[in-house]
Design a protein that fits this description.
The chain is α/β, with parallel strands linked by helices. Helix content is 34%, strand content 15%. It binds (2R)-2,3-dihydroxypropanoic acid. The site of (2R)-2,3-dihydroxypropanoic acid has 7 residues, from loops.
Length: 328
């Protein structure tokens, strides 16, 4: 049932089928230009919307929420992570927040595996050599990387994505270790053949590859600070497809440059697209533009989730993916 009375404002371009469906269902304002909204435009949208559909990069903090109009009752985030939204304050103002979990799990886990394989096997360097036309032919000692099978993979954060990575890693012969706020159910742990470490510090010192899958919260900000990074073996690799703020990017950069870590695969950065310039151009670092969930299928499914959340809310129910304080 269309709910044309509902004013829905979307902050960025969404995949075409999602926008078409939104036009059919709601009184929707889309962002044709895809230009990121500045604080003024976002504040204006907060004033006028019944439902706001923001996404990563739209900072909805206390100050922004203070601009919300009386009619704003739902922030239906396009994305699983909601660290850019002050959910507590939104709730206090009677505004529900929902997200899009689940549908980007496999795509993000696939991308993580791609990086776990690419960095130790030096795919970036091989590609650059070919692109520059500098390859002189096969040689027994050229571009030797490190074998993946048999290595210890440490997973930091064993939620949906962490577990999807563990399943894939097992198939590649990696030994799975993990640290999580809560230990997994014994059956799940046995199924994943995963070893639990209550102490993150102890796990860090023993893994060959560390992959990050916890959310960014005040408690995980710089969880991998200089002290913890120094616990890792100099031969270890770090992969981050979660949030940049979890690693102290400056400390990581210094260690990568000093050869105190073997390499890194980074899809996310501490300050969004303002990347530490000293990370660029390093042979042992693969940098990607936050594309872990970037598949046509996944991005359409994320949009479908947003629509279901809005429709359920419009029908007078709690959105199925409402972010509740226990998740914070
Ligand atoms: C999310 O949805 O939070 C992801 O980071 C997008 O890839």
């Amino acid at each position: 049932m269309p709910n044309k009375a509902l004013k829905v404002i979307v902050t960025r371009r969404l995949p075409e089928p999602v926008e078409t469906r939104m036009r059919e269902l709601f009184d929707v304002e889309l962002n044709e230009s895809d230009e990121k909204m500045g604080a003024e435009a976002l504040g204006d949208a907060m004033k006028r919307a019944d439902v706001l559909v923001p996404t990563l990069g739209d900072v909805i903090d206390q100050k922004m929420l203070a601009q919300a109009g009386e009619s704003l009752r739902l922030i239906a985030n396009y994305g699983a992570g909601f660290d850019h939204i002050d959910v507590q304050t939104a709730l206090q103002r009677g505004i529900m927040v929902s997200n899009t979990p689940g549908v980007l799990t496999d795509d993000t886990a696939d991308m993580t595996m791609a990086m776990i394989l690419s960095v130790p096997r030096r795919l970036r360097e091989g590609n650059i050599l070919m692109q520059r036309g500098e390859w002189t032919g096969w040689s027994p000692t050229a571009l030797m990387g490190h074998r993946i099978g048999g290595k210890r993979l440490g997973i930091l954060g064993m939620g949906r994505i962490g577990q999807a990575v563990a399943r894939r890693a097992k198939a590649f012969g990696l030994q799975v270790h993990y640290h999580n706020r809560r230990r997994l159910h014994p059956e799940t742990e046995a199924d994943l053949e995963a070893t639990y470490w209550e102490s993150l510090d102890q796990m860090l010192a023993r893994v060959d590859i560390l992959s990050i899958h916890c959310p960014h919260t005040p408690g995980t900000f710089h969880l991998l600070n200089a002290r913890r990074l120094k616990l890792m073996k100099p031969s270890a690799y770090i992969i981050n497809t979660a949030r940049g703020e979890i690693i102290d990017e400056n400390a990581l950069t210094r260690m990568l440059r000093a050869g105190e870590l073997a390499g890194a695969g980074l899809d996310v950065f501490e300050h969004g697209n303002d990347i530490n310039p000293r990370l660029k151009g390093l042979d042992n670092v693969l940098l990607l533009p936050h594309m872990g969930s970037a598949t046509v299928e996944g991005r359409i499914e994320m949009g479908e989730k947003v629509i279901i959340n809005i429709k359920t809310f419009a029908d007078g129910h709690r959105p199925p993916d409402q972010v509740v304080p226990a998740m914070l």
